[in-house]
Amino acid sequence: MHIAVVGLSHRTAPVEIRERLSIPEQTMETSLQSLRNHEQVLEASILSTCNRLEIYTLVRNPDLGVDAVRNFLSSHSGLACGDLTPHLFSFHHDDAVDHLMRVAAGLDSLVLGEGQILSQVKKMMRLGQEHKSLGPILNRLLTQAVSTGKRVRSETNLGTGAVSISSAAVELAQLKLGQSRGLDQLVTLESEQIAVVGAGRMSRLLLQHLKAKGASGVVLLNRTLQRAEQLASDFPDLPVQCRPLDQLDQCLSTCSLVFTSTAADDPIIDAARLRPLNRRSKLRLIDIGVPRNIAADAADVDGVESHDVDDLQEVVARNQEARQAMAREAEQLLQQEAQQFLDWWDSLEAVPTINQLRSSLATIRVEELQTALSRMGPDFSARERKVVEALSKGIINKILHTPVTQLRAPQKRQDRQQALQTVERLFDLEPS
Questions:
Q1: In the annotation, is 242 catalytic?
Q2: Which of 50, 242, 251, 255 is catalytic?
Q3: What are the tens digits of pLDDT across the range 240-279?
Q4: Which residue, 112, 209, 249, 383, has fewest beta-carbon neighbours within 10 Å?
């Protein structure tokens, strides 16, 4: 068995590729089942966010298992393997474990130390459990990754002042507004007419950061008006007008700044929608949805400036250096957590041999006990028989305690394999 992860992220693929591989929650069960149906894939879990799609697997053969995942991604995206492969990364065993720990801790995020990724890893584990694609190995690995992410945030400074994709989007708006005024700095959003499209978690964070950055009011649009109203009620100090999505054209005509974060599979704003509008001012669009909510041709419309998640790098780079120092605090902790899992994984290698050894000694014990009891004759009481049987079991357990403990103890894999071979040879066991 072998642990492997295959995927792509903001580091390896542009948003136009990432959006084609996005797997929404409503199709997650089908995707997991498709992976598990392959004979090479024993366990599987999928992490799908705006900046990454990663598939964690326990496979029989490392090469064949990874090929199976790549073929699944090609089929899902509609991209030929030759076009998709340059954007994919794969990590095996130790490296796969290290990668997941870094992801859960926010060290591989676009925004270094981002806290939202931990909840997404938790969600990955929950969906894998619900859809029965996880087994004991990946369940243990994901559980440890979640606890590692929590530990990093509680024991290091990485989570201090950590920002999210949503906060980076708001800072991008501030930066672009400042640059339009000839200033290379973040400026207040107080005078901007702002709309947010969508009422999910990302939109909640958008409202939170818009309020912190001086927004005087926001129009919140959503397909379900009631959900928008529920979200707005959590921000009593921020004037929020809730409108149904069919009033989007009106907002595009009157607003100067529009953020989009919906679960729509196709763009809801494009050039054809924008051109007929009688806009009052320059329109700045910032799309943090994946798949994208705003078509690429929106930027071709006069008076429209459009940005997507890949453009966030401009503001992220401004504070990355300071956060790198914080990230170094977490590295040693991550190594400890990864090694703890790998030690547990390596100890599983000893289980078949240990079980064989127990079974062999148990057989000998029963045979010798029966021989001894037959010699005792009918005068040997039932109570005395139980005492002798308990004694024989106790002797076997005492004999096994030290070698079993040694075989399971953390050690170099080569040393463990040598010890296992020695035990198998001495006790004439079947090679594991």
A1: no
A2: 50
A3: 999 999 999 999 999 999 999 998 999 999 999 999 999 8
A4: 383
